[in-house]
Design a protein that fits this description.
- It is built from six helices and 13 strands.
- The chain is about 30% helix and about 35% strand.
- It has two domains: about 1-115, no CATH class; about 135-290, Immunoglobulin-like.
- The two termini are about 20 Å apart.
- The radius of gyration is 23 Å and the shape is elongated.
- It has a six-stranded antiparallel sheet, covered by helices on one side. A four-stranded antiparallel sheet has the order 9-8-12-13. It has a three-stranded antiparallel sheet with strand order 2-1-3, with helices on one face.
- It is α+β, with helices and mostly antiparallel strands.
- Helix 2 packs parallel to helix 3 (about 105-115) and helix 5 packs across helix 6 (about 275-290).
- The longest helix is centred in the first third of the chain and has 26 residues, at about 50-75.
Length: about 300
């Protein structure tokens, strides 16, 4: 977060010290859910460059999203919807999708994490996990994980994985892990590994969590085999709207099992109490170190 604040401050100081600031227009598009008409609200501002203007406009958009979500939760009703936004240059040409600059994606992510932390919850139908950990509890939780820095990553990202997670692909397991960036935790992931002596050719997974059924179709499916006829099948996916409810339910579950369905056969695997607890610990650590779920 410090990195982001320094960036914004530096952009502000440069703008103040330069007499060639340009005029930009931020246009917010709002959809009326009753009439389905689109209303555009404009806000004029100045910046020293297109890149600085882009970050400013994106920040305005994120703040508007958070404020709108909070108002909807408070009132219980939603009358308008934020359809999108546009950034116009001083000649009124749209440049929203044409501005390119160094570290654009990472700076946008920093803004998302910073502004997103203002939100009360993540607008999900499931109960949102809100860990309230004191310093001692957080330090204890961190000891349950392995921190492995990617020495080839220019941003110095570190993988944070539960110590109880399988060390090799030829072990059964289900867990979450994530990356600890320089500013906040990012890239929460969901992984399931299945090993047997017969191929399933995994296609989808059906979960039964405290008596409630869920279904998930993995995206990054992989499989391999080893000596002795042992086979390994697994998926490693980002946590997003397609599996977020399953992850939250697992973290709060007392009992759970998964039916791993292949193209012809299936196998039912019990998810152990230890595995459920590990998923909860991972989510607690992820959110307690600044991570947020994708909407």
């Amino acid at each position: 977060m410090k990195k982001l604040y320094l960036l914004l401050i530096s952009l502000f100081l440069v703008s103040c010290n330069n007499y060639n600031s340009k005029i930009y227009t931020y246009v917010e598009e709002e959809l009326d859910l009753g009439t389905h008409s689109v209303e555009e609200k404009e806000q004029v501002f100045t910046e020293i460059s297109d890149s600085a203007a882009f970050l400013n406009a994106y920040k305005k958009y994120l703040i508007s999203k958070v404020a709108r979500a909070s108002a909807t939760r408070a009132s219980g009703a939603q009358f308008t919807e934020l359809k999108g936004y546009k950034l116009l240059d001083e000649n009124k040409n749209e440049i929203t999708n044409t501005v390119i600059f160094d570290k654009k994606d990472s700076l946008m992510l920093d803004l998302e994490k910073t502004i997103g932390s203002l939100s009360i919850d993540n607008n999900t139908s499931s109960k949102t996990i809100k860990p309230k950990l004191n310093t001692e509890e957080l330090e204890h939780l961190k000891k349950l994980f392995i921190y492995k820095k990617d020495e080839f990553d220019p941003d110095g990202l570190t993988w944070v994985t539960p110590k109880s997670a399988p060390k090799h692909v030829n072990e059964n397991g289900i867990y979450c892990y994530f990356e600890a960036g320089q500013i906040t935790s990012i890239n929460l992931r969901f992984r399931l590994q299945y090993t047997s002596d017969e191929w399933l050719f995994m296609e989808r997974c059906q979960f039964l969590i405290d008596g409630k059924a869920y279904e998930y179709t993995p995206i990054n499916l992989k499989r391999d085999s080893g000596n002795g006829g042992e086979i390994w099948e697994w998926f490693d996916d980002s946590v997003d709207s397609s599996n977020k409810d399953i992850i939250i339910a697992l973290s709060q579950a007392k009992t759970a099992k998964v039916k791993i369905k292949g193209n012809q056969y299936f196998d039912i695997v019990k998810i152990t109490t230890k595995q459920l607890k590990t998923i909860k610990n991972t989510l607690d650590l992820y959110e307690s170190t600044g991570g947020t779920f994708k909407l």
